[in-house]
Design a protein that fits this description.
The longest helix is centred in the middle third of the chain and has 22 residues. By secondary structure, this protein is α+β, with helices and mostly antiparallel strands. The chain is built from 3 helices and 5 strands, in the order H-E-E-E-H-E-E-H. Bound molecules: adenosine monophosphate. This is HIT family protein.
Length: about 140
């Protein structure tokens, strides 16, 4: 799928927002949802999305909705680093298949990095849900800390 296209209400993140597909949630308010990536590239890899904005990518995003997602992305990045103490953290976002996008609902990745631990392959290798649930609890516990 290219940069141009129509938002598909059947995409997996739209299903997660509607509660039609499972997710391990880390944060939720009226506008923004964050959940663990099920094919994590590192321990603590999570995703942040708008619940209201039907934007496939950054180019289509409503600026007000984007501002809310970015503010929560910062909050969660702080929580992830406080909880898991990584040596670094990637915050990334892909637009269009050639750029690496596989799900066409705008999302931000938060990926902790540890020195000497290589980054896992993108969207490969499913995580154990119990482990994700424990990580989500560790991270969300630091949200108000
Ligand atoms: P991107 O390639 O930037 O579009 O990222 C999509 C991300 O969504 C990948 O990192 C996938 O591992 C992740 N992903 C796909 N399906 C699910 C799902 N059902 N729950 C959580 N993460 C998912």
């Amino acid at each position: 799928m290219s940069l141009e296209g129509v938002y598909d209400d059947g995409n997996i993140f739209a299903k997660i927002i509607r509660g039609e597909a499972p997710s391990v949630k880390v944060y939720e308010d009226g506008d923004v949802l964050a959940f663990m990536d099920v094919f994590p590239q590192a321990r603590g890899h999570l995703l942040v999305i708008s619940k209201t904005d039907k934007a496939r990518n950054l180019l289509e995003a409503d600026p007000a909705a984007l501002a809310k997602v970015v503010a929560i992305t910062q909050k969660l990045t702080r929580a992830v680093t406080a909880a898991l103490k990584p040596d670094g953290v990637i915050v990334s976002q892909f637009n269009g298949a050639p750029a690496g996008q596989t799900v066409y609902h705008l999302h931000f990745h938060i990926i902790p990095r540890w020195e000497g631990t290589p980054l896992g392959r993108h969207a490969e290798g499913m995580a154990d849900v119990e482990e994700l649930t424990a990580l989500a609890a560790q991270i969300s516990a630091k949200l108000d800390a």
